[in-house]
Amino acid sequence: MNNNTDAGVSSSSRTDKRNSSIGDYIILETIGQGSFAVVYKACKEKDKKDVAIKCSEKSKLSQPEAIENIITEIRILKMLRHPNIVEMIEFLWDDKCIYIVEEFCDGSDLSKFIQKRQKVPERIVQKFLQQLAMGLNYLRSHNISHLDLKPANLLLVTKPRLTLKIGDFGFAKFLSDETYQGALRGSPLYMAPEMLLRRQFGAKVDLWSVGIITYECLFGKAPFASCNFKELRDKLIAETTIEIPEDCGISRQCQELLKRTLKYNPQERIDFEQFFSHPFIDIAHVPSPKTYSYAVELLHQAVKHDSKKEFKEAFNLYCDALAYLIPHVHAEKNVTRKQALQTRLAQYMDRTEALLPATKWIQPSSTPYNVLRTLCSSTSGLYTAIEIGHSADLYLAEGLYQRAHEKYVIALEMLMNLLPKEPPGPRKDHLLKQTNEWLAQASRCKALIDMTEIDKPQVDIGDVKELCVLQ
């Protein structure tokens, strides 16, 4: 880190630094401007590598909170290294400014991406959300909350593939499970109600922002677009219903995620663990060397159980392995390797389906089902969810994967809406255990469905060429 106290800004102009320099960097153009900082595209004199330089004038950092923000931002950026987070290269300063030098993102930001296309296809929104989730998961592992998530702060890199990166940590804070109350931070349109209304807030404010961003990607505008701050505030105070357009063509899973992120009450809002594991996000199965190795280990275990005639365990393990490997097929760009992987997976799929008649572990009179049915008999919503989930089990046993998956999704949606209101006790314990089991079964169903779809051509996304390599 080169903390150069004489960065050598060779220009008297603060608004146009073209052909001037900051330390070893030549300023090329202005690419962004905010209340406290200007962002320049620059390149290093030696290697001509492009960078972005965020320039904060000290005269605008007179307020203690502004000074604290930039100190926190530098501290946070120094510790972060993740492919979905903009990387800080170094920071510099002189008598007038503080400069944060970061990697340059050649695809601009998600805001301009949306403006250009108006509406982003759901499949691409899903890929962006997975990348955003992986970045947020890394931040949560460090107890960091961004507090200013919005499309303009989600930057895009186009090479070697289109990649989303979280940027601008000017309002970020270290927040674990505690709540915090302070000045407004971020952009009101993307700000969680508890923050905008100056109530106690916690890390879940970032998940509200994710919901607003998702809505804007899908429908071309944020759900609370308003003429002024008062109008926006009034909508949030009134807890205005967030409308999802009819016949929008958005999948049930995507709609369910939207509804759960955009809960006015943060206690009812989806939490981070649920968000990361949500079927629409499912970062656990995103292709990586780690998930590939894990899938291979699952296959080894499946074969062992299969040889011992432990068919239930073998079936589950084959399905779990497929769930990890199918994304690798879609991500593989080498035609030869892709075909080889497809062939191997088809063989495992055949064996998995052959095991179904032998997996007689699902019975209508099974003890867990009867216990739950009895415990939930006085609560119609829970009773209905249990019945639907059990019908999904039966469809799976018959090899009707699509119908089984649909039933699992309906049952799980109902349970996840009802469980937060369920008081502690034996019934809740049984429900939580069953919910986890059905989540696993729904994932297995999805893997089996995806295997039947794997040879079909990809969705046509028109002339957006860079999306073809999105992973």
Describe the structure.
Residues 1-15, 361-365 and 457-471 have low confidence and may be disordered. Helix 14 (401-418) packs antiparallel against helix 15 (426-453). The chain folds into four domains: 21-103, Phosphorylase Kinase, domain 1, CATH 3.30.200.20; 110-284, Transferase(Phosphotransferase) domain 1 (Transferase(Phosphotransferase), domain 1); 287-359, Phosphotransferase system, lactose/cellobiose-type IIA subunit (Methane Monooxygenase Hydroxylase, Chain G, domain 1), CATH 1.20.58.80; 367-453, Phosphotransferase system, lactose/cellobiose-type IIA subunit (Methane Monooxygenase Hydroxylase, Chain G, domain 1). The longest helix has 28 residues, at 426-453. 37% of the residues are buried. It starts with 20 loop residues before the first strand and ends in an 18-residue tail after the last helix. With 471 residues, the protein is of the alpha+beta class. It has helices at residues 64-79, 110-117, 122-141, 193-196, 205-219, 229-237, 252-261, 272-277, 289-307, 311-331, 335-355, 367-375, 380-397, 401-418, 426-453; strands at 21-22, 25-33, 37-44, 50-57, 88-93, 97-103, 144-145, 154-157, 163-166, 173-174. The radius of gyration is 25 Å and the shape is globular. The chain is built from 15 helices and ten strands. It has a six-stranded antiparallel sheet with strand order 1-2-3-4-6-5, with helices on one face.
